[in-house]
């Protein structure tokens, strides 16, 4: 009897209506860090991610071709011996970035690969619980790309620095997810502004009915660390 | 629980109730009362718990369901998700709220509730299966269809298409501001674009029609219009090149593989067409091969293309130079195809652009064309000489076979952003075999002539050039070699004597041979200095040429030429450009020229000056106005310096009256242009005026007698041309309609000589076009309708001749299903000459069937189906020598069945 019940349950769960969300996320710097308030053309260039949500799992993957660049410019000296002054401009970008969240099992996986300022490759693989944010929902609304979004704010601390996060979410899309590791709002987060420096937003969004997309956990390139272990290691 | 009201009733003292209550506080049951009262009067600490469980109607527990609790004023007080058991629990103050439950895959539920108790527990809230109302949302950050970014206008092509498009031509016609002109060229805001690029490379050079007709609409991803385009070989740092380029981007699925199609059509009376375009788009290689064979009148090029492909590359100074040649050097197959009776063409084009590295580019372009065509026409010619007017009725039957080939190879080496080296080579072969049967009837005689003309032309050009940027200055230098050999054999067989020649026997046969040979070496150097807001340019062009012209007809002295012209010419000049503000440019320049000529050992020389000035206001890259004045000179070619007659046709001779090698013909050129393109309101407008004034021109002296006329080159004192053109195009946003109209007015007023007496010839033309087209996206059909007209008026002294063409048209296209699309073109042409009128009704229906799961397409095409047998149109090409009224047979209409296989 129980066997039939479990089989029936299994069948019913397979018949559960499936809806998947696919989208393109754009990540761009709007202001420079430190003493560089004017961004170079290269630094202004945005990163593009592909976002997929299905069956309580979400995956955000970098799709634009990015790499760390170091450009050297020679400026002709005004002096008589025409000495050339070299200035270098380094823009550090991840060439591989994957954000994976499994809401049912509460697993968060992050894979980042980049070349540092000395152009040496470094990889990060993180596995931990899905980060929890203490959001404050405000009574402000704004239309973002045709969607009526509600404002929510929070702060997060990374390496001792506190960042102010402004997120805009839309309740009509009942997914408590968002770009990167942001989550926990009663609707899909369509836009996040991090500390006034970076803007992450959904540029394209598609809801498909009757479709389940397989989302696999990403392979790790180096040893898995939790978020705390990673910060400890950095010190 | 104590009832507050009870206290009031018991009270006997008729005093303040509050006082009563407070006084009770101090009685025995105070403690309980006290706490009770405090409990009522301190609402701030009343936190309640709302909890519940969410499930689906089919019994599934819903975890990660979104719960939001809001006040009636839409303020969110709590939110979160359900746990693995579908349960939620929140802490709220007492009051009225709305509970909102949502989960992906289910319909959202909203429940109003009031809470004042400590806990409120909902029974399992069931959600019904459903899909989030916005079933398929495609959110685009930019929903606009035309976006302006800097100097580039981006067209998001998919916004304008409706599925009936077949090739690039259909797409361009639907984009606001862009259009295809009568001779197949792509125009932006009324003006032909300077470069057509496919994936950034100029694969088709100026032969836009090869691209627009062969690139299928499925291959096109997006189109951008770039103003101030800088090509690979440009090192000049000037941001305003003034070059307009249209770049067509190809979809990724068509890259890195061979794509193209095989199209074949066949119909009654053996009308056929076979067209095979093939493309390869790779990162470092772009290849296009087009093969075509047809007898429908399609040719790969027109007269404009011919001159562009055979032009000598020495023309660096961007000044228009007019070369008048009387040797009838333009092949007849370049005539607009609607004026031949039958035509068969085989052509092939190959274009290969390879960039093996970032520094090197090789560009090979070749066209080969064989055409065989027949022309049948009859002309009523009216001649006016000083004494009398007479006319001739001429019936012509012409057959021309022509082999034409152009092969260009261009290699560019660009070691860095400061230097470019180029090596260009071009070979041109042009052989014609023309046979003409003429029957000419005048009052005095009936002439029957068979003319055979075989010009064979070969041209070779080679050039090495260097362009260099030094700081912000620009240096350019080149050396080039040009070789031309033109061998012409002309034979006339007549039944009556021609040209009043004394023929020895009754054999009225003329054999003319002309041999022309040019060798030319030239160098050009220029240096451009940019300093502050000024640009100073210094340039020098020098050439040395050796030209020979030998002609002979039947060993007759008056018909023989033996010319050798050696020229050494040099031009040195400088230009100064000022930028008084960001938007204004002022240019002024002067050049000094000297020419040394040896014509058959007779020496002459000449010194002359040229000027140029230009005023330009650039409001933005889509709004520019420009006024310029140039004073230019041109020298005669060896063809104008002949001493003996050259036979042009059975009744025309060419000679020279008084042109000598050191004659210089100056002219003033005034140009004004103003154009505006607004991508937001999809409006474009252009106004253009060109006015050429010649006080000393290479004109003609015409001597006419009953049987033939002689046109001698002679200096005249007037030859002015004026042209004004206005173009307006607007795509409406409220209705799916766009309106386009253009109007052009031009005249040419010149003085010529008739039997050495001064006479005046004026040609005036007004032409215009008005068109409005619909662009419904989802409707079953779209149309465009309008009218084209052209009025020509020729005035020779006091007599005139006119020609009017009215052409209202209506074109409809639509789709029945996704697979079947149809197209109907209808046009009514009314031709009016001085005395006659001709109507031509043209209807061309086409049906296309697209097989969805395979790469096949099927066609039934009709062209001009009301005129399947020998249609005739009128034409008028009057000159100072005669007024002409022409009736000519045009290509018959046809119905053909075809297939197309895409790969």
TrEMBL record, chain A:
Swiss-Prot/TrEMBL keywords: Signal
Q: InterPro entries from the entry?
A: GLPGLI
- Do the record's keywords include Signal? yes
Pfam families referenced in this protein's UniProt entry, alphabetically: Porph_ging
> Where in the sequence is the signal peptide annotated?
1-20
Superkingdom, natural source: Bacteria
NCBIfam families linked: GLPGLI
What is the protein's name according to its record?
Answer: GLPGLI family protein
